Every structure is written in structure tokens, then in C-alpha cells.
């Protein structure tokens, strides 16, 4: 090995962690210490709060926190907080919001809010015997065993909705599931669901040992493999949509309304039938979704996993958005499975998360679901609008221009020059470099 393993790293102070990293991996270059320190918050209490969000923290990693205004959602005008590092995401969402604001805005519908979790277990017993045991004894015991832990959630209108026995023995020998559905109201509910499931596992073990119809050999075959929620929530879903008459679908690209609508719909259809395109198409949707998910302190990895699993639920990966043109009406919508919360986790701790939720009017979990679906739909509309008219690079590279100039060390005067230079041109990396070199050479 080219480095030495470390023991007890988590127990070291922050400074000693940094010292070890610089010595072991960074050739004693102390300039990296300054890089880490410049991202520490000057408020020691706030810095400590951030450090306690995760483990082995030595600094903070900043992302741009932007605002996309003019979102008319179900009659409410909102400005969406977006934490994202990619150029043009906020701009595209904002442009789409402005496009639809005078056409009725975005409409949303909560289709369902059911979340799922499983106790996965192995039991070498005939399926009909397990089913009888579940229906006439175990199911009731599971509800009874979790009454204390679900009491507060039930008082808020949520709790365990149902528990089913799933026979998966055709896929894996003697494999069964206790599949439970939950309503966690305004919380994402991961801890609640997992706590309930762990009680399921314990209760299952106890009740199997008591079951007189099982032989001792059958009882001994029980193995509780794991108790865990699922981030695939196909029944926790929201629809967001926009629609208008084609005659009102005015675009500034120079093509007719009818041509724009036809090309747009065809682009969506291609994403519905072609997985290579659908992957990039849905990535763009998640640009909009994840940016608001992060800004509101929710789990973007769970959001991503769920969305992509849903896109492949019918055996072929396809678009999350859809488009129709019927009787002169253009309609564009998304059905997004998403599980988020507005209480618990970082929502009550991170100052910017609290700001984001306040900015959005302190939404319920269902209202936040709607906002996230709209953000994804708007982002997708903006991307497709560019793709079928001017092309994606014109707008994207114009936003990316400052990244290139910052890498080159451009001054503010030089940046202003490039804004003017590319006012009527498409930005390319080659052209920026070429013009930059000429500009610098001319100053010598």
C-alpha cells in the first residue's frame, strides 16, 4: 500500500483529522488547510450544527442557492429555492414558469401518498400454512404490537394502512415478505417506518415460535433477513400538468405554434420509446426536482432512485413526462412518485432549509410534492423547448460562459467584454479560448 491505514479516525478532533490528511495524502501542503478553513462558518455554533449533520466532517461544501420566480401553482404564485451547481437549470425553470404564468400556470393533483416497507424473511413452510397463520393470527398481532409507536402518527391522521403477506418463493426458495403500507403525513417517515418494521420482525419471530401448526423444524427454519422501508413508492405519486390552446402556444423561436407543438410532442414520444433518450430526458427532469429537494432538506438520492425505478416499472425505461395534442389543445404532464417531508430531519435544523420552507409558505408534505413535480415539469419543458427550436447549447453555453472565464482567471472587465461579444453568437469553449487569447495578446 502507498499509504498507512488509520485507527480511530472518527475519534480525532477536526484539526487532527486535517493534519493527518495533509501529511498522509497531500504531501504536507498546508495550503489545503486554508481551502478547508475558508468554508467554515464564522459562527461557531452554526458550524458545529453543520458538522453534526454527518460524520468525520472537516469543512462545508457549498452549492449555489438560487431562486426561480414566477411559478403559478394551483393559483398560488411562488418563488422556488433551488440548490444546484449546473449552469442553466435555474434559468430554464424560471423561463418555463414565466411562459406558463399567463396560460393558467401549473395544475397539480395528489394521486396517492402511500409509502411502503418490508420485513424480508425465510421460512421453510408450505405457503398455504403461512398464509393461514398470517390471516388468522399474525396480522392482528402486528397491528397490536405497533400500537404504541404508531399512536402519535395515527393522531395526526397517518399510521399503518395495511399489511400483506407476499409469497416470493418462486424467485428465492422459502422467501416471503410482510409488505406494509404507511401514511406518514408531513414527515418523510423513514425512521417511523423502519421502527415499525423492526417490531414486525420481532413479533413474527415470537409468533412463529408459538404457532402450533408449525413443526419445530419449520420454526427453526425462520430467518428474519431484514426490516427496511422501500424508496420505491409507486403509490406515493403526484401529477403536475400544463395545457393551453395551440393558438396560445406562442414561442419566440420563429416557428409556428403548430410546428412547435408537433415537434415538442414528437420529442416526448421519442423519450417514451427510446431508453437512451429517456435517460437524458429524465435526468433533466431531476435537475429541477433535485434542486428543490436539496434546498428543502430532503433526500435527493431516494428521490432519484424512486423516479428511475418508476420509469422502468413496466419492464422498459421510459419518459416520466407525457404530451398530447387533442382538439387543438396542447397538454404536457408528469406523474412523479416522490416521498418527502417538511418535519423532522434537517427541516428543523438547517437554517437555509428553514428559509426555503418559509419562502414556500411552509407547505405540507403534499404541497411540497406538488411543487417538486412542477419544478421537474418546468425544467423538462424548458429543455425540450430549446431542443426543438434553437438547440440546447445556445442557452446552456451562455450560462456556462462564466465558468469558462473563471477557469481562465478573467477580470470583470474581460467578462463584460465576453457578454457583449457573445450577445448574438453561440458560446463554444473553443471560441472563448480563442477570443480570450486574442484579448490578452492585444493588451501586451
TrEMBL record:
SUPFAM superfamilies tied to this protein: NAD-binding domain of HMG-CoA reductase, Substrate-binding domain of HMG-CoA reductase
Pfam families for the chain: HMG-CoA_red (PF00368)
Oxidoreductase found in the keyword field: yes
InterPro entries: HMG_CoA_Rdtase (IPR002202), HMG_CoA_Rdtase_bac-typ (IPR004553), HMG_CoA_Rdtase_cat_sf (IPR023074), HMG_CoA_Rdtase_NAD(P)-bd_sf (IPR009023), HMG_CoA_Rdtase_sub-bd_dom_sf (IPR009029)
Swiss-Prot/TrEMBL GO biological process terms: coenzyme A metabolic process
Keyword terms: Oxidoreductase
Stated family: Belongs to the HMG-CoA reductase family.
Xref: PANTHER family: 3-HYDROXY-3-METHYLGLUTARYL-COENZYME A REDUCTASE
Name of the molecule in the record: Hydroxymethylglutaryl-CoA reductase
Amino acid at each position: 500500500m502507498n499509504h498507512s491505514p488509520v485507527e480511530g479516525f472518527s475519534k480525532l478532533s477536526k484539526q487532527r483529522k486535517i493534519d493527518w490528511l495533509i501529511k498522509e495524502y497531500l504531501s504536507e501542503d498546508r495550503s489545503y488547510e486554508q481551502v478547508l478553513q475558508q468554508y467554515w462558518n464564522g459562527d461557531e455554533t452554526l458550524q458545529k450544527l453543520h458538522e453534526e449533520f454527518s460524520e468525520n466532517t472537516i469543512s462545508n461544501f457549498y452549492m449555489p442557492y438560487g431562486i426561480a420566480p414566477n411559478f403559478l401553482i394551483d393559483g398560488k404564485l411562488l418563488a422556488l429555492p433551488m440548490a444546484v451547481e449546473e449552469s442553466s437549470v435555474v434559468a430554464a425553470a424560471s423561463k418555463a414558469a414565466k411562459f406558463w404564468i399567463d396560460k393558467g400556470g401549473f395544475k397539480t393533483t395528489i394521486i396517492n401518498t402511500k409509502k411502503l416497507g418490508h420485513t424480508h424473511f425465510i421460512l421453510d413452510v408450505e405457503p398455504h400454512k403461512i398464509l393461514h397463520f398470517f390471516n388468522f393470527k399474525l396480522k392482528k398481532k402486528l397491528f397490536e404490537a405497533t400500537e404504541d409507536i404508531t399512536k402519535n402518527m395515527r393522531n395526526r391522521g397517518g399510521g399503518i394502512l395495511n399489511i400483506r403477506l407476499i409469497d416470493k418463493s418462486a424467485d428465492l426458495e422459502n422467501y416471503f415478505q410482510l409488505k406494509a403500507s404507511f401514511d406518514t403525513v408531513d414527515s418523510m417517515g423513514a425512521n417511523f417506518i423502519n421502527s415499525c418494521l423492526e417490531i414486525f420482525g420481532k413479533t413474527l419471530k415470537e409468533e412463529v415460535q408459538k404457532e402450533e401448526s408449525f413443526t419445530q423444524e419449520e420454526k427453526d427454519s425462520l430467518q428474519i433477513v431484514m426490516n427496511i422501508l422501500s424508496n420505491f413508492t409507486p403509490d406515493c405519486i403526484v401529477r403536475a400538468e400544463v395545457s393551453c390552446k395551440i393558438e396560445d402556444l406562442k414561442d419566440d423561436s420563429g416557428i409556428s405554434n403548430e410546428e412547435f407543438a408537433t415537434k415538442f410532442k414528437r420529442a416526448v414520444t421519442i423519450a417514451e420509446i427510446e431508453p437512451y433518450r429517456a435517460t437524458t430526458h429524465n435526468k433533466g427532469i431531476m435537475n429541477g426536482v433535485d434542486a428543490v429537494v436539496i434546498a428543502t432538506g430532503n433526500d435527493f438520492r431516494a428521490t432519484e432512485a424512486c423516479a428511475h425505478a418508476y420509469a422502468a416499472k413496466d419492464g422498459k425505461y421510459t419518459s416520466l413526462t407525457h404530451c398530447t395534442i387533442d382538439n387543438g389543445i396542447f397538454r404536457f404532464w408528469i406523474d412523479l412518485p416522490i416521498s418527502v417531508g417538511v418535519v423532522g430531519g434537517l427541516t428543523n435544523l438547517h437554517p437555509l432549509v428553514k428559509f426555503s420552507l418559509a419562502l414556500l409558505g411552509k407547505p405540507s408534505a403534499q404541497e411540497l410534492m406538488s411543487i417538486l413535480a412542477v419544478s421537474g415539469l418546468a425544467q423538462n419543458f424548458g429543455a425540450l423547448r430549446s431542443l426543438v427550436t434553437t438547440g440546447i447549447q445556445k442557452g446552456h453555453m451562455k450560462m456556462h460562459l462564466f465558468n469558462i472565464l473563471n477557469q481562465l482567471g478573467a477580470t470583470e472587465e474581460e467578462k463584460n467584454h465576453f457578454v457583449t461579444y457573445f450577445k448574438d453568437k453561440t458560446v463554444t469553449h473553443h471560441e472563448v479560448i480563442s477570443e480570450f487569447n486574442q484579448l490578452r495578446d492585444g493588451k501586451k
